[in-house]
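In this supplementary section we document a worked example of the pipeline. Step one takes a protein sequence of length 466 as its only input; no multiple sequence alignment statistics are reported here. Step two produces a three-dimensional model, which step three serialises into structure tokens for compact storage. The input and output of this example are shown verbatim.
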Amino acid sequence: MQFLNRADELELLDRRLRGDSAELLVIYGRRRVGKTELLTHFADGTRALFVEATDTVRQEQLHDLTDELARVSGDELLKSQPLTSWEAALAAIARFVGDQRTLVVFDEFQLLAQQAPELESVLSRWWRTTGRTLPLVLVLAGSEISFFEDEVLAGRLYGRRTGQLKVEPFLARDAALFHPGYTAEDRVRTYSVCGGIPYYLARFTDDRPLGEHLLTEVFERGGLLHDEAELMLRQSIGDPANHTAVLRAIAHGHNRNSTMSARTGLEPAHITKLLGTLERLGLVESQRPVTASPRSKKVTYRICDQFLRFHYRFVEAARSQLRTNALAAAYVQDTVLPQLDHHTSGVWEDVCREHVLLNSPEVSSVGRWWGPVPTGRDRRTTEREIDIVGVDGDNNTRVLGMCKWTTSAVDFAELNLLDSLIPFVDRVVDQPRRVLCSRAGFTDRLVRHAAGDPTLSLVTPADIYA
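The serialised model returned by step three reads:
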């Protein structure tokens, strides 16, 4: 796979490798995000021992480590006498490092720790007595987010690590590096399918139309990504049937505990536990109005990962229609492509919020706002929403905006709607900046108006990738 971007991550690793101190780095992130590619790319041309753990028993893992250490060191003794304990393995690694600056990577470290519960204690003790005295950069990497945050970063290695890096999916603008020949609109659509996951994006090259990639990679039964969602869940959850039901419910718009319970038939308390697991895995996140207190009960849930959002909306619910390639082609043509822009509209909001955050030094976070707004009839209210709300470090609202993913150019109606809702948002500063984001651009008269209004910005897909 072509290696793209990750400039900040590579700079961090390179700085640590060029330093004089021993380093114990924890690098983690969800599956398929590109951790192994990043570390493999970084290790290229470096004196390194790269151990990629497998899900097997402890002795086999130590045999694999022995074989790799013997290969890179040329130690004939190791070839004839495999290592039988982690104490012996770490002593052998210390001999290999010697007095030369060396990178040592334990990839999928959680698999080693599962088979050897004593490993973290052994490693902590070895680092205190030996490792920190060596010209060594030791990297513990893996994809079980909850394990790394709870057991490694906050566990036995809390006082030993010298740095950590959570590898995140690509931003929307960086994801487009995989298909530079696509139009700006198709880049957004592709992001709505693949999100920022390099493993998925690499399959959606610009040598073929997006619709063809959807058919061959996602909907045909032989496609690489056809069963990806289920396989990914099963790597983290033994029996994911109920978790799958919750993900399907969210993907179809049931984003509150009560509505998920009604759709799935699962008890609300059980739904809460399932959501907690999905949140720890980084697949689902809870949302509140960005101006609300963290204790606010205005909670909704959404699938963080765009690919899972797409999969559980279009793939999982249509298994019976994907039995043959011909049926899959008809389903993509008749159902998926006509509904793709509706699906993309929600992701367009994510893309625009990201754009505002990256281009607004005055704000520290960007989210949504929703709340009751008077209808003008008696004391009746209706719930309304603002797509983009940016707040500063003191929770003052500084940027507000709306997003449209339609075929019609946006006119003053959208600006007037935004202005009518602003008074109901908490702690809005005087003359906040307003942003309108539109797939189809803006009318000439709105463009002329914006040119004379420094508080108003107009954003199109082309601006996202400029």
